[in-house]
Amino acid sequence: MSTPSAQLEAEILAVETRRQEALITGDLDALSELFDDSLVHIHAPGLVHTKQLLLEHVAVRRAYIEITRQDLHVRVFGDTAVITGGIVNRMHAPGGASARSTVWSRRCCIVARTAVGAS
User: Fold this and answer.
1) For the chain, which residues make up each domain, given as ranges?
2) Which residue stretches, if any, does this entry annotate as coiled coil (predicted)?
3) Which pLDDT score is estimated for 112?
4) What are the tens digits of pLDDT across the range 28-60?
C-alpha cells in the first residue's frame, strides 16, 4: 500500500466525481466506461448487482438526486486505488417522494485502476 501523489489522488477523486454525476444524470455510457465488467455492487439494503444489472437498475430507477461524499481517503495498491469514506445519497423513493440514505464505513469503498491519466 502507498499514499498517492497529490496529482494522482486528484485524478482518482475526479473519476469518483464523474461516477457521481453519471449516476445523478443517468449517463449509462459514462457508467459503462467507468465500471469494470467484473463489478459487483452491493446496495445499502443488501441487493447485489453485476455491472449489467446495475446499469439496468440506474436506467429504470433514475433514483439519484444528490450524492455527497465525506472524509474520503485514497490508498493505492499496485495499479489499484481504493477510496473509502462516508456517503449521503438523496434519492427518489420508488413512490416518487425524496429519501435520504447515509452510509459511513471505512470498509465501504470504490475501487479504480490508477492508470487514470496514462496514455
Assistant:
1) 6-113
2) none
3) 52
4) 999 999 998 888 888 877 889 999 999 999 999
What was the pLDDT predicted at 8? 86
Task: Report the run of H or E that residue 119 belongs to, with start and end.
Answer: none
Residue 40: is it exposed, middle or buried by C-beta count within 10 angstroms (0-12/13-18/19+)? exposed
Which amino acid appears at position 16 of this protein? Answer: E
CA distance 86 to 66: 14
Q: Are the CB atoms for 91 and 68 separated by under 8 Å?
A: no
Q: Please answer whether residues 79 and 114 qualify as being in contact, where contact means their C-beta atoms are separated by less than 8 angstroms.
A: yes
Per DSSP, the three-state class of 15 is helix
Residue 98 to residue 94: CA distance in whole angstroms = 9
Topology of the domain comprising 6-113: Nuclear Transport Factor 2; Chain: A, (3.10.450)
This prediction's pTM:
0.78
* Distance between CA atoms of residues 9 and 30, nearest Å: 20
